[in-house]
């Protein structure tokens, strides 16, 4: 066996170049199917990951009758159907319209909303943001009359993302273009852009990504990354395998200084685009988010770049805090500029297991290995939600599913049934933090079946403490079939890149700096285990 060969360290080039595009983005949707090697692909938007058990059953039947009988969960809490016949688009769209999953053909691809999956279920957070999600989705889908200020929203890219955080800090760290964060006293922080974006004149991230990639099988909404490292489970309201209770702490008092709840108003608003947020009333938050997106579209037109994301705006065309405050004021929304701060660098992922609520009801939270479900497993989730829960499913941005509304006994029985079906229901699973792109045979650009390689690495993984799965603190790992690395995680992570009959295993961080080794397929598992323990 050949020894692993070290690779020289690399550094990504400075991220100060703004893309100038001559085309619209090619993100798939329910109406715009993408042609892949395994057939056509449809992406069904689920704003905030919310759907009913009846809608879920419609998707299961569509996967079986029109596709390959599998469903992929994406990093934005959406669903993808694969293996579709190229001529099934009209029939699929009709099913989705009837089920209420396609409320507006014109706005299909702009309904990109992630939200705190446990909001309103576990007593954490400052607001139940599911109501925000429904109002924002209605604003996005509305054929707004002239003069409303929202008529342009259909022009958003399919990659533009809204995040609605209830204050616990989970989706606020996902790098959305427009973020709302609930704070105490019935207020919210509105952020245009993210740390690493130019939205409010922050520097552009230099981390490698697939956002600009024309291959729409992956990018910001790519399936396959079950990045659930550090997740704790709960049974009967108590965390399993944790030393202390792990209820997510909201962002705000008595949290550390710099969190939105502790942020002070800026003494004197000016024209400085140094980067800040605005405080608005919670009742106005969804409309303020929609108007922030309109401000972005205005900036895109002024820049002449056809930017898809806020981070792609040239610094000289970035929307300043005061410009955004002025736009909100014109719409009758009072907004207070806030001092700039740096958002959390890593999201707090939802719990896995039983999640107890203050009303005595429980939610069942599971993770899906590599984000892929058979129609039978998806149908089981829907049936359990209808039989013992509230009839609702919540798909998370971490390729998981939350089923609310169970009694404690019913939740325990549902969790056992889901565990028997092969879903991740307990902590310390070796699947936590492991992800992969589509790979072969679904993607023509892939050089290997990286999902199979990921499964082999998981099969040989052990935490070293007698329990299956990774110990706390291990880096997430992502297997990619080509240099595009579609759907890879942010922050610090282990990059496993297929290069033909070999792999490059590299530890990367948000600056783009990397150092790794070149290994054979037989050496991947050991190289990954060593890299994941890097601190």
Written account of the structure:
Mean pLDDT is 80; it is low at 8-16, 195-219, 225-275 and 463-471. This protein has a seven-stranded mixed sheet with strand order 1-25-24-23-22-21-11, covered by helices on one side. A six-stranded mixed sheet has the order 7-8-9-10-14-15, with helices on one face. It has a five-stranded antiparallel sheet with strand order 2-3-6-5-18. The protein starts with a strand and ends with a helix. Helix content is 21%, strand content 21%. It has helices at 53-66, 89-99, 130-141, 285-303, 321-330, 375-388, 408-420, 450-459, 524-532, and strands spanning 5-10, 34-36, 39-44, 50-52, 70-73, 79-84, 113-115, 162-165, 178-183, 187-192, 225-226, 233-235, 238-240, 277-281, 336-338, 353-356, 362-367, 372-374, 392-395, 400-406, 434-436, 477-480, 493-498, 502-508, 514-520. Helix 8 (450-459) crosses helix 9 (524-532). The chain has nine helices and 25 strands. The chain has 535 residues and is of the alpha+beta class. Pfam families: NIR_SIR_ferr (PF03460). It comes from Streptomyces milbemycinicus. Residues 206-216 have a biased composition (Polar residues). Keywords: 4Fe-4S, Heme, Iron, Iron-sulfur, Metal-binding, Oxidoreductase. Residues 41-86, 359-420 form the Nitrite/Sulfite reductase ferredoxin-like domain.
Beta-strand segment tally? 25
**Widest sheet, order of strands:** 1-25-24-23-22-21-11
Major pleated sheet: 7 strands, mixed
Class of secondary structure makeup:
alpha+beta
| Integer-rounded radius of gyration | 22 Å
Weakly predicted, low-confidence segments: 8-16, 195-219, 225-275, 463-471
The share of residues in extended strands comes to: 15-25%
- Shape, per Cα inertia axes: globular
Distance between the termini: 28 Å
Helix content: 10-25%
Query: What count of helical segments does DSSP give?
Result: 9
Mean pLDDT across residues: 80
